[in-house]
């Protein structure tokens, strides 16, 4: 089973590239440095040691620099961003926005049909004009080849963004 697809939503978040800042959106338009780190991977509550995490999953970690604006104010933008990165279809069931925080949850189907993995996800974003931190968790049960029965898979990742000025 390809475990890396479970954390694909944490690959470098696309920023809205329209010219100019949306004044209703908290993060400002500009040059954003993005850092992505895998938090943890567990199977049936047991942490998978870093050296045993599949390389394709570890490859999601990294940094990027993008000109744009994280459009957390827009539920549809966030929904589309998730669906661009996850094999299958994810549906946002809840989306809450305050001036300092964005939270949400939903469910994905068809993420790993070979393992019958259809995880639920939650995210929590703390935001300011020049920084954000997003924690994403995906949890669901799956059939793992070579292991009888179904197993609970939990993946967490953290993405941070820092605005470094104008584009």
Folded structure, characterized:
- The chain is mainly β and 167 residues long.
- The chain has two helices and eight strands; from the N terminus they run ββαβαβββββ.
- The protein has helices at 55-58, 75-85, and strands at residues 30-43, 46-47, 62-68, 89-97, 101-109, 120-127, 131-143, 150-163.
- Strands 1, 2, 3, 4, 5, 6, 7 and 8 form an eight-stranded antiparallel sheet that branches.
- The longest helix has 11 residues, at 75-85.
- The protein is globular.
How would you describe the shape?
A: globular
**Percent helix among the residues?**
under 10%
Q: Radius of gyration from the CA trace?
A: 16 Å
What distance lies between the first and last C-alpha atoms, to the nearest angstrom? 41 Å
What's the gist of this structure?
This protein is 9% helix and 46% strand. It has 167 residues and is mainly beta.
Secondary structure elements and pairings:
Layout: E1 30-43, E2 46-47, H1 55-58, E3 62-68, H2 75-85, E4 89-97, E5 101-109, E6 120-127, E7 131-143, E8 150-163
Describe the structure using short key phrases.
167 residues; mainly beta; 8-stranded antiparallel sheet
